């Protein structure tokens, strides 16, 4: 995956402004350009767009890092579980609610807020 980030100091091979900040997959490599394939929503459909962009306007994406790290960790858990002879639980679980807290306060610390009474002004 690559991110398209336009570098305004290089005008050659600059993509159209719509593609700035988009992520795509490399499909072609040239001397000083990359072919990037991505989807673009037009109306109610997704079109697969292929554009060539100068390498000055492209950088390696970090969108896949956490997924790849999780895959490696899960594979390690599965190997360890196989050695121990148990089944590994590699599913993601929601965090759940936070632990409860009890707030202690004295009578002097409590401040009751009340709205000011409405006063009609006839000028």
Offer a concise description of the structure.
The chain is α+β, with helices and mostly antiparallel strands and 123 residues long. It is 16% helix and 27% strand. It has a five-stranded antiparallel beta sheet, with no helix packed on it.
Description of the structure:
A 5-stranded antiparallel sheet has the order 4-3-2-1-5, with no helix packed on it. A hairpin with a 2-residue loop joins β3 and β4 (45-54). The longest helix has 20 residues, at 65-84. The model has no long low-confidence stretch (mean pLDDT 93). It has one helix at residues 65-84, and strands at 2-4, 23-29, 33-42, 45-54, 58-60. It starts with a strand and ends in a 39-residue tail after the last helix. It has 1 helix and 5 strands, in the order βββββα. With 123 residues, the chain is an alpha+beta fold. The chain is flat. The protein is 16% helix and 27% strand.
Topology summary:
Elements lengths: L1 E3 L18 E7 L3 E10 L2 E10 L3 E3 L4 H20 L39
- Mind telling me the C-alpha Rg? 28 Å
Number of DSSP strand runs: 5
Question: Which term fits the overall shape?
Answer: flat
Mean pLDDT: 93
How does the helix and strand content classify structurally? Answer: alpha+beta
Helical segment count: 1
Q: Secondary-structure element sequence?
A: EEEEEH
Distance between the termini: 69 Å
> Level of helix content?
10-25%
Biggest sheet features? 5 strands, antiparallel
Q: Notable features of this structure?
A:
123 residues; 16% helix; 1 helix; five-stranded antiparallel β-sheet; 5 strands; flat
């Amino acid at each position: 995956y690559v991110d398209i980030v336009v570098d305004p100091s290089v005008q050659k091979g600059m993509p159209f402004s719509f593609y700035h900040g988009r992520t795509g997959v490399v499909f072609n490599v040239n001397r000083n350009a990359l072919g990037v394939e991505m989807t673009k929503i037009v109306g109610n459909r997704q079109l697969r767009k292929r554009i060539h962009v100068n390498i000055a306007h492209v950088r390696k994406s970090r969108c896949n890092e956490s997924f790849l790290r999780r895959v490696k960790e899960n594979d390690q858990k599965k190997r360890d579980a196989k050695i121990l002879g148990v089944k590994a639980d590699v599913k993601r679980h929601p965090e759940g609610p936070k632990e409860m807290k009890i707030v202690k306060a004295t009578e002097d610390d409590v401040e009751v807020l009340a709205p000011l009474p409405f006063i009609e002004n006839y000028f």
